[in-house]
Amino acid sequence: MENYMVELEGVSKSFPGVKALNKVNFNLKSGEVLALLGENGAGKSTLMKIISGVYKKDEGHLKLFGQEVEDLTPLKAQELGVSIIHQELNLCPHLTVYQNIFLGREETSRGIMSDKKMKKEASAILKELNIEMDPEEIVGNLSVSKQQMVEIAKALSTDCKVLIMDEPTSALTSKEIEDLFKIIRKLKAEGRGIVYISHKLEELKYIVDRVMILRDGEYITSMMFADTTLEKIIAHMVGREIKEKFPRIHAEKGKKILEVKNLNAGKLVRDVSFDLYEGEIVGIAGLMGAGRTETTRALFGADPVESGTIYLEGKELSIHKPMDAIREGIVLAPEDRKKDGLCTKLSITDNISLPNLDQLCNKFGMVSKSKEKAMTEKTIANLKVRLANAGVDAGSLSGGNQQKIVVGKWLARNSKVVIFDEPTRGIDVAAKVEIYNLMNKLKEEGIGVLFVSSEMPEILGISDRILVMCDGRITKELQRDEATQDLILKYATQFEKKIEDQEAV
User: Fold this and answer.
1) Which residues form the ABC transporter domain (predicted)?
2) How many of the other CB atoms lie within 10 Å of CB of 66?
3) Of 54-68, 75-89, 411-425, which has the strongest mean pLDDT?
4) Are 447 and 415 in contact (CB under 8 A)?
């Protein structure tokens, strides 16, 4: 019998109205990278939270390093050598990088907390991980990708034996992902066990030894990665074969609905000009920091516009805040759904209702409960949101179902332009297809769709046209038929290459 670092037998866990895990078996060996896969809501995060002491199992057995463990807490799990990087960032934004890394484990000198010692050790950890970052930087001022790297540094600073990574690359650049994979290979060579949860299945071939699949809270199968294919993995995850990962429909291109001229906002939106037509999907591609998200925020009124003009159906708009854009029919599903897209402590019904009160209230300002219920039920049914009931908190949903609510609240409006910023980040293959189908539905209805994505296959697979950004500017517009990954990357680095050429002269 093999000696496992982690072993679970017959583990179950229920929440009100939902059986998250049903008699699941799990094991992890030393020096192994195990991919734990499944759709959103399959039970992956719940299982890992049991192993890391966040949740208590309802039944079953849990062994860590050969010893059965009861009443596991996060602190006890950490002391035993288990560390977890959560899918949703778990940082204190008002604290510095080094303070977050050592939070709860503060270094002392002669009984007094030593900032100097923690800064020095944090610098060493960041350097070892090849992360360029000032340990004294306030975490709330960092980009999402940099915050993700702080989470990784925090987990690895505990010198753990078992490391759980829940969607660690969801907000990382290509270079940061390469650096992370090097770290994973190093940890594996040191004999540590790694559980890797990701919906980016193409990543698995670079690091994974074995695959385990959950579906609807139950164990489905496990196999060596070398002995399977991505198609088989997807079929096991969803219980059926997904024939088309990027469904597209043909729609007649209508009239020009949105026109943007010489838009400037902050440092990362410079003289941006483009058109958007009814019944088309336009993708915005580029590297991290190219100005894609900043452009969408400026259009939505979330960031102040310094100069430029925005026309909707030929009418010049004056957008100073999001409500201005919403009233005109321009809506945004933001990049950071937890921070900007949801009220996680409020119910699903409340989240769908809040931006649509103008449609739900009578002339006395009272919300029509029947209209609210109908809107909520229609949204949940159309998007196939998995939940016990519409009264549960939005924060209790899986990442994919949270994203559906963010999108769904806008689809309840008579919107003319729908902007998606990283709409499929952190959601599974089947849920991604549902989002693409929603985008196609909007396209078919004559609505203009603008979307930002860091997933190159997604940009190439869904877009009718592609705008490539670099250094805050649109460097190229590509038609779907002419676009390739190499061509997009060429224009995504255009200004960087110009600078390199100038320095070489």
Assistant:
1) 6-241, 249-496
2) 9
3) 54-68
4) yes
